[in-house]
Specification:
Layout: H1 2-12, H2 16-29, H3 34-46, H4 50-60, H5 67-80, H6 84-97, H7 102-114, H8 118-131, H9 139-155, H10 171-182
Length: 189
Amino acid sequence: MEYVHQAERRVANSDLAGALRAYTDAIQMDPSYGPAYLGIGGLRERMADFVEAERVYSVALRLRGVANIALARRALLRHRLGRKAAAFADLEKAVQRGRSAGMHGRILAGWYVERQAWPAALALWRRILAEHDSDPESDQAREARVQVHALTLLAATSDPVVVGGADHPSWVRRALASMARRGPVLRQR
């Protein structure tokens, strides 16, 4: 939409008030246009109007195509404001809903580590590693392998893949347990 492009140009030129007007015009033209809400939310954050930014992201949760992004942005905003429980719940939901764990998955895994929730962090890093299976030499795959290795050690007996996995009736679970015991292959550059 042209208004959003105008808003983005104005943001690039540090004309935040003009950008806000353009995003508002976009919403007046089409109240269901999600990118305009995300733009307003981002601008409100930049302007330190956190209450309004959170409100805008909350409205965007109802819009198709941007709901998950709005949820993740609201989570990061809430975390920044010290509302960690609400932030955690939002980001957890965003990562679960997403096709890919991506950057938000890495952030959530870090939050799990802060809470010493080793099995949850390990499960998320295993998901991230699996997502980079097609390019095992990428920086993301390397990072994921290191994290999986470290978290496997930290999770130890609380890792559901390892505990009872060797004797599990499912061959998949037994194979995962065997791979987990060997640890990930840490390739050097």
